């Protein structure tokens, strides 16, 4: 248990040196590494080794050709060629595991022990791996125009906002469909089941490199957020290939494949309410928005929300000759979304901004909502390819019902969450994928246990990947263990120290 806690707590620790196992020249980019069907490790980025593993575009039709998946490894000081590799599966979809491990290299030795090698990767369509797709084909003006039409603010901010977001969403899918048709015929071959098969290819190639039977290879995985969908998918497809698996900060895989994110709002307001109690407990010296009671803090925050909803704040920047801005209710809601990911780090910042707003200064919120726009396509392409046969959000009636539900569940986040996740963008995608690429029927649900029980971890109050999803996932995998940490925030991002008495199994 202690080792697991280190995984959660040490994302920002000190770096560790890796051992290179060959004499190839050091490289600092994956373009300098030749893809290979064999697992060939090249020294890279000073402390790591890298590989581009060649995999089939479609495992059911190898005649279509191949693509390459970027892997990066940090070797443990006491690791050997036969040591298991623990694969860190990034969040997203669209998250880069290469960047994750480069930025947080200490997680390897410090969290898991020096006897293991730590590996991460960029899934299909992401960063250094193949099949990346630019839906607007480099046309920044078109992307900006779409964003202006679609990002109208929180979904219920006006009488027409919901309709504008729904109808404009079709533009995005049409551009992506066209980009695949004209430039990247296999650009939609980036689904999560395909990624699960890529991981199977990796562990078999690694076993072969170590002189072991590929058929005996087992996956050791630490999955984060969307990475838990990858882990759950792999465990459902290949239950006898699960070695050690930790799924941390659970996304409901079944709802994910249905393009249904309604469960995600389950604990948002519960987490937001903790802001008031934490701020009051911290005292006026440590919380700039302090009040004599938590109820006082909540009431003042609610008043700011109401004031900003009715009266946006213009910022002229006339004296500094900067760009003018209009701070809106949507900017404030974007602040709340950001704060919920890591409350221990973000709540003090949110308190400072709320204090400034109360004093009449809104400049810290300027442009906050703009950061929620579609700036890169990988996440949405994967999300929409995964759900295209099961998408439960295609009509305006379904979109309206979804928005009404999220608003009813969360007064603080519910109205911004639909545009934050932006799952409505998937309604006009037409991937035309083979059966091997998509989820068939129910993905989560086994009639036999995995070869080793899965450890499922969650905070007791998780505003993005809620506890309800962890409980549901655990119930679907026989023999799995649910580990709860009494903390607030997204479990996989939690970096505050937790006492052993706060851990429950």
- Strand order, sheet with most strands: 1-2-3-5-4-6-7-10-11-12
Low-confidence stretches: 1-23, 494-505
Distance between the termini: 10 Å
From the spread of the alpha carbons, the general shape counts as globular
Strand content: 5-15%
State Rg. 23 Å
Number of helical regions: 16
The major pleated sheet works out as: 10 strands, mixed
Give the tally of β-strands: 12
Overall pLDDT score: 89
Order of helices and strands: HEEEEHHEHHHEHEHHHEEHHHHHEHEE
Helix content: 25-40%
Helix and strand content put the structural class at alpha/beta
Brief descriptors of the model:
disordered N terminus, disordered C terminus, alpha/beta
Textual characterization of the structure:
The chain has 505 residues and is an alpha/beta fold. The chain has 16 helices and twelve strands. Helix 7 links the parallel strand 6 and strand 7.
């Amino acid at each position: 248990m202690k080792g697991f806690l280190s995984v959660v707590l040490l994302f920002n620790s000190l770096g560790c040196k890796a051992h290179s196992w060959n004499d190839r020249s050091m490289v600092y980019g994956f373009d300098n590494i030749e893809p290979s069907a064999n697992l060939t490790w090249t020294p890279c980025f000073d402390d790591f080794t890298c590989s581009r593993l060649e995999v089939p575009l479609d495992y059911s039709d190898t005649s279509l050709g191949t693509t390459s998946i970027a892997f990066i490894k940090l070797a443990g000081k006491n690791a050997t060629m036969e040591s298991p590799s623990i694969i860190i599966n990034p969040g997203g979809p669209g998250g880069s595991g290469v960047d994750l491990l480069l930025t947080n290299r200490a997680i390897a030795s410090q969290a898991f022990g020096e006897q293991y090698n730590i590996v991460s990767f960029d899934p299909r369509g992401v960063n250094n791996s193949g099949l990346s797709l630019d839906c607007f084909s480099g046309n920044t003006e078109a992307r900006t125009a779409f964003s202006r039409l679609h990002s109208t603010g929180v979904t219920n901010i006006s009488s027409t906002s919901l309709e504008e977001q729904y109808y404009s969403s079709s533009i995005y899918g049409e551009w992506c469909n066209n980009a695949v048709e004209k430039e990247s015929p296999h650009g939609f071959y980036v689904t999560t089941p395909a990624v699960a098969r890529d991981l199977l290819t990796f562990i078999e190639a690694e076993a072969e490199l170590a002189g072991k039977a590929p058929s005996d290879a087992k996956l050791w995985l630490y999955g984060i957020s969307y990475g838990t969908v990858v882990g759950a998918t792999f465990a459902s497809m290949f239950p006898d290939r699960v070695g050690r698996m930790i799924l941390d900060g659970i996304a409901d895989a079944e709802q994910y494949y249905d393009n249904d994110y309604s469960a995600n709002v389950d604990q948002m307001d519960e987490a937001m309410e903790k802001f008031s109690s934490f701020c009051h407990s911290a005292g006026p010296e440590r919380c700039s928005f302090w009040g004599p009671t938590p109820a006082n803090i909540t009431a003042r925050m609610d008043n700011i929300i109401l004031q900003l909803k009715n009266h946006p704040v213009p910022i002229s920047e006339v004296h500094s000759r900067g760009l003018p801005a209009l701070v809106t209710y949507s900017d404030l809601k974007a602040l709340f979304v950001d704060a919920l990911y890591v409350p221990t780090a973000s709540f003090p910042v949110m308190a400072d901004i709320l204090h400034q707003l109360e004093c009449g200064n809104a400049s810290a919120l300027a442009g906050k909502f703009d950061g929620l726009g579609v700036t890169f396509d990988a996440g949405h392409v994967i999300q929409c390819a995964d759900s295209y046969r099961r998408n439960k959000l295609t009509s305006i009636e379904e979109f309206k019902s979804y928005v009404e539900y999220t608003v009813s569940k969360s007064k603080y986040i519910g109205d911004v969450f639909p545009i934050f996740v932006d799952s409505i963008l998937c309604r006009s995608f037409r991937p035309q994928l083979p059966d091997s690429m998509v989820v068939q029927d129910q993905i989560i649900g086994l009639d036999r246990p995995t070869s080793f029980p899965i450890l499922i971890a969650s905070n007791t109050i998780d505003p993005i990947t809620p506890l309800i999803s962890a409980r549901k996932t655990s119930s679907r995998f026989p023999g799995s263990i649910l580990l709860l940490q009494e903390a607030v925030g997204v479990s996989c991002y939690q970096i505050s120290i937790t006492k052993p008495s706060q851990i429950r199994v």
